[in-house]
Amino acid sequence: MDSMGPLLHALPTLRVIHLVRDPRAVAVSRWRFSASGRGEYTERVGRISRNRVVAEASLYCHHVTADIRSRLELEREFPGRIMWMTYEDVMANPEQKFRHIYELLDEPVPTETLKKMQRMAAEGQTRNVTTKWQKVLTPTDEREILYHCSEFFQLIGVSSEGSPLT
């Protein structure tokens, strides 16, 4: 997000979409790939946790929390030009989220895109994608991740259980 400020200044029609994902899902997803897909230090266990999945989530939260803070500053300077959303929200209601994206762009949703979103939803392709991590993480892993990522959840206005903060 730090690079977006100069771009937003230089390109008055530029729109930015900041997509974030639940760190528990990110950690599990990254850990399933080879070492090249993981964070720089998660191979060297011990800096944050003895558990590599927890270390991966913590690394993700550290970077994304900084990005969120940058985005919040940019939103004040460039109102109406930045949108943020969570991957989980996109997967829960892709048609609505894609409509919001095209509204930001001040463009109609292409018919083919809309049909594809509706077809995917009808086929159930967007269900259960966002909660796979629940089958992988132990309760201890989850508690550690929630502890290390508490600021992330607070900044996006979502409790660690996924419900909006009031």
Query: What is the spatial order of strands in the main beta sheet?
Result: 1-2
Quote the beta fraction.
5-15%
Helical run tally:
8
Major beta-sheet overview = 2 strands, parallel
Q: Gyration radius, to the nearest Å? A: 17 Å
CATH architecture classification: 3-Layer(aba) Sandwich
SSE succession: HEHHEHHHHH
Extract low-pLDDT stretches: 45-49
Helix and strand content put the structural class at: mainly alpha
Mean pLDDT: 84
Supply the CATH class: Alpha Beta
**DSSP strand count:** 2
Return the CATH topology.
Rossmann fold
> In whole angstroms, how far apart are the ends?
27 Å
* Integer count of domains: 1
Which terms summarize this structure?
about 170 residues, mainly alpha, two-stranded parallel ribbon, 2 strands
Give a quick rundown of the structure.
It contains eight helices and two strands; from the N terminus they run H-E-H-H-E-H-H-H-H-H. The protein is mainly α and 166 residues long. The chain has one domain (4-156): 3-Layer(aba) Sandwich (Rossmann fold).
